[in-house]
Amino acid sequence: MAAPTPSAAPGGFPAAPVPPELVGRLRDRLVAVADEVEEEVRRQVPEYAQPEGALEGRLRTGVVEALTFFVDHIAGPGDQRAAIAETYYELGWKTAAAGRSPEAFQSALRVGGLHAWHLMGRTAEDLGLESALVSALGELAFRTLHEAA
Predict the structure, then answer these.
(1) Rounded to whole angstroms, how far apart are CA atoms 59 and 78?
(2) Residue 28: strand, helix, or coil
(3) What per-residue confidence (pLDDT) applies to 16?
(4) How far apart are CA 120 and CA 51, in angstroms?
(5) Helices within the chain (DSSP H only)
(6) How far apart are the first and last CA of the chain?
(7) pLDDT tens for the 149 residues of the chain, in order
(8) Could you tell me which residues come within 8 angstroms of residue 17 by beta carbon, excluding any fewer than 6 positions away?
């Protein structure tokens, strides 16, 4: 199944380089962040609150894929619109196959993205990152969500 062709992200500003120590720290914390993001999605999005039965683990897999993709994206930004579209198209298709609505998927993306950003902000603060870099990370997060939508 082919993913739709992505449109350009708004603004077209070049991404700021991300320090390798931040990328390493985010990779090191990926499992813990995935735990918290999954819990937050289950808490806030009713369609994901129930046990998944035969589909158990799909939310977890989607959260880990999305977080891994984002960390990979900030490690080497470049033009990854097609890869972003493909990743999230596949996650959306899996959501539909599981019987969930597109609205539930969009809600899970927003809730998960916001919670992940909150946790990333804490990591940036712990590392003492400059506000310009934190701003650039925010822009990359919004670009990724824009392409996912």
Answers:
(1) 28
(2) helix
(3) 59
(4) 28
(5) 20-44, 46-49, 58-75, 81-97, 102-127, 131-148
(6) 18
(7) 444 343 444 455 455 567 788 888 889 999 999 999 999 999 999 988 876 665 567 788 888 888 888 888 788 756 666 776 777 788 778 778 878 888 888 898 889 989 998 988 888 888 888 888 888 888 888 777 776 66
(8) none
